[in-house]
Design a protein that fits this description.
Helices cover 93% and strands 0% of the residues. It is mostly helical. The longest helix has 25 residues, at 2-26.
């Protein structure tokens, strides 16, 4: 379960970074 949690955190971090990049490009 720890591995799943770690993967989820990594996925969330990547999604957040991607959204931030998209926001910068849109602006």
């Amino acid at each position: 379960m720890i591995r799943t949690h770690r993967l989820l955190v990594l996925l969330l971090n990547a999604f957040y970074l991607r959204g931030r990049l998209v926001g910068d490009i849109k602006r």
